[in-house]
Design a protein that fits this description.
It is a single chain. The protein is α/β, with parallel strands linked by helices. It contains five helices and eleven strands. It has a six-stranded antiparallel β-sheet, covered by helices on one side. Strands 9-8-7-10-11 form a five-stranded parallel β-sheet, with helices on both faces. β8, α3 and β9 form a beta-alpha-beta unit.
Length: 248
């Protein structure tokens, strides 16, 4: 029988600044159940007058971490929930949550690989959960992440991705910076296009599990490009965020 997810009160255990506009919130969940990499939680805020605002945020942490989750959230200027989290919430505060939710955009180590992950902006969050799960589960599935950011300072999880790319067998990290590149930049320096997809995904052939997450134009362009490269549409899973590549 499918479990009915109820709202519960989580406690903010830690807050970490990822970039100037992105923070990770570690939440302790009293009625915690293991999630699948790629799932999300709903957050709900209730004002004294009864007004409620609710948003969904992808889980960034691996399911092997018991009792808590990480939600990495882009702070938007007009975001009701993200703005409150950024300006009001501190460690020790409590917040209403419900999850984990979702069953389509998920990957488990038992599914194997090769695994192609393509993200734009904060669309990297559920993909990071997959990478972290791969590491914790000891999976050796060949995995490549192609991550598009506007500039070097916008790369979420930058240091962790660099470390994992060097230490985890079979994991390769590719970056593209679409607006500004630092001196000596060795990665890609344009929006994701077909030649870039060919360079990154080509070695995997057609038997690849592909996951794409980010703004709708990026997701649609990459998904169409992968199909052009011969990857069956049924092996390409997508999740779209808003125009900025994040949720509110």
């Amino acid at each position: 029988m499918k479990r009915v997810l109820e709202w519960q009160i989580a406690t903010v255990a830690a807050i970490r600044q990822e970039t100037a506009r992105v923070k990770t919130y570690t939440l302790t969940i009293p009625d915690w159940i293991p999630h699948q990499a790629g799932q999300h939680y709903d957050l709900r805020l209730t004002a004294p007058d009864g007004y409620q605002a609710q948003r969904s945020y992808s889980i960034a942490s691996e399911p092997e971490r018991a009792g808590e989750i990480d939600l990495t959230i882009e702070i938007l200027d007009d975001g009701e929930v993200s703005g409150y989290l950024d300006g009001v919430i501190t460690v020790g505060d409590q917040i209403e949550v419900r999850g984990p939710i979702g069953g389509y955009f998920v990957w488990e180590a038992g599914m194997g690989g090769p695994l192609l992950l393509v993200g734009g902006g904060s669309g990297v969050v559920p993909l990071m959960a997959m990478i972290r799960h791969r590491c914790s589960a000891g999976s050796l599935a060949p995995t490549r992440l192609l991550y598009s950011s506007r500039m070097y300072e916008d790369i979420i999880y930058r240091e962790e991705l660099e470390r994992l790319g060097k230490s985890q067998p079979g994991l390769e990290i590719f970056h593209t910076l679409t607006r500004v590149q630092p001196l000596g930049w060795a990665g890609f320096a344009r929006r994701i296009d077909l030649p870039m997809l060919q360079a990154v995904a080509g070695p995997f052939g057609n038997a690849v599990h592909a996951y794409i997450c980010g703004p709708t134009p990026l997701v649609e362009s990459v998904a169409n490009g992968l199909v052009q490269l011969g990857i069956p549409p049924g092996q390409v899973r997508t999740e779209r965020f808003g125009p900025t590549g994040g949720t509110a």
